[in-house]
Amino acid sequence: MKLQRKSGLRALTVGAVAITGALVLTACGSDDNSSSSATPSSSGQPTTSASAASSISCAKGQILASGSSAQQNAIESWVKNYQQACAGATINYKTSSSGEGVVDFNQGTDAFAGSDSPLKDTEVASSKKVCAGGEGISIPMVGGPIAIGYNLPGVDSLVLDAPTLAKIFNSQITSWNDPAIKALNPGATLPSQKIQTVHRQDESGTTDNLTKYLKGAAPSAWPYEHAKAWAGKGGQAAAKSSGVAALVKQTEGSIGYFELSYATAESIKTVKINTGASAPVEATSANASAGIASAKIVGTGADLSLDLGAAYTTKTDNAYPIVLVTYEIACDKGNKPATLPLTKSFLNYISSTDGQAQLTAAGYAPLPDEIATKVRSTVAALS
């Protein structure tokens, strides 16, 4: 079994290097050649980069990371910029799922992992085996809306509320001209077509956050507890956010959930949510930031886990309620000496003002300033 595990790791490294290498080539093909790349010190400690991304302080080496597909588009952009600026650095992020990322981290494979839900107590306990003298902590990094995408030709604007959405995803509302949907869309011509729901087949933080919203905003209509594994009745399953988006894109009459960046990339129409505000709220980066601004830090010590409960029931104008925050999971203490410099350098960059500023264009929401400031302090203290 040990030999098999090592072989798998070698295969992962080769595959991930190919992906990040392609990103570097894309970056190097830019018409702007005025930037120069920094050369990391021989010790692997960060040195200041002279590239256009002035906030990047480079370190060299190679790190493995994996997990959340929700942050894939953000990570790809960040990795491209970092590796363009930093010669001798390779960051291999394998997009899988939040659950798989946490497992990889707690098995000692990853320098950090991406998860759309903070670590559970049992996962923190397991992390102590790989964090010498410390434990895994949840560091919020990527905010954004969970878009409800639909494929209904002729219906260019669709409004739903939490109870109706919960009943759709639990197969209690099964046709597009159901009275509950018609009441929310009086000006729309809705077909009698059957609704085809699409959900994640893998354990997903996106599912966890959507079901937190459904349970928080419509508890009588959503009888299940929130979880990474899908519990609703019926529907089709697809792997990763990209798989759900692709299935919605190709299936007339379908509805599914995924990060806004996937809806934008696939030109999928998204639902506006009736929250009780003065107007239904669209899934946008700015509206998600307004929702996330109500989050409270509930983690202890270095952990920065957030409670998003207030966002789910908000009636504030332009505050989108179905939001998630992707965390980077790392050891507060006891990170491996060989990977710590590059891990800290990369996390420092993506939490910086420059790093966060890239999120909006990719369909994500930058962290509110108060939370971002605490994130930067936490990253700086990793050891």
UniProtKB/TrEMBL annotation:
Signal peptide: 1-27
Keywords, comma-separated and alphabetical: Phosphate transport, Signal, Transport
Tree of life domain: Bacteria
Pfam families reported in the protein's UniProt record: PBP_like_2
Alphabetical list of CDD domains matching this protein: PBP2_PstS
Entry-linked InterPro entries: ABC_phos-bd_PstS, PBP_domain, Phosphate-bind_PstS
PBP domain mapped to chain residues: 55-352
PROSITE patterns per the UniProt record, alphabetical: PROKAR_LIPOPROTEIN (PS51257)
Family listed: Belongs to the PstS family.
NCBIfam families on file: 3a0107s03 (TIGR00975)
The protein, known as: Phosphate-binding protein
Species classification: Bacteria, Bacillati, Actinomycetota, Actinomycetes, Kitasatosporales
Gene: pstS
